[in-house]
Design goal:
Layout: E1 14-25, E2 28-40, E3 46-47, H1 50-61, H2 77-82
Antiparallel strand pairs: 1-2, 2-3
The structure holds zinc ion.
Zinc ion binds at residues 7, 9-10, 12, 40, 42-43, 45.
């Protein structure tokens, strides 16, 4: 796959950035820090290279030891509105 330079959706310009990525895996939520990605300057769409995606899948599937664990607050909007 050749390197993308334009956003698939809006044709905006892509720039290489290191981002924090929240990965939803069924019921699990995994956070990756400093992930190299191409980010659209216009709409914010994020693109990962195949080898980066593979690494993230590997970390989840092989249950590699994470750097840290977070406790994540979960809010239900109907409950917030009713409160
Ligand atoms: Zn875009």
């Amino acid at each position: 796959m050749s390197k993308m330079t334009r956003c698939y959706f809006c044709k905006g310009k892509l720039t290489e950035k290191k981002i924090h990525h929240v990965h939803h895996w069924g019921e699990r939520i995994v956070v990756f820090e400093d992930v190299p990605a191409e980010v659209c300057q216009q709409c914010g769409e994020v693109y990962f290279r195949p080898e980066v995606l593979e690494k993230m899948d590997e970390a989840v599937l092989e249950e590699l030891k994470p750097k840290a664990r977070l406790s994540i607050p979960v809010f239900s909007m109907p409950e917030l509105v009713a409160a």
